[in-house]
Amino acid sequence: MSDTLGLLEESLQLARDLGYCVREEPLGDLPGGDCWIGHAAHILLNLEQPSAQRLDVLLRVLAQNLKTQLQPMSRLLKSRLEALSE
Question: N or C terminus: which one in the chain shows less Cβ crowding within 10 Å?
Answer without folding.
Answer: C
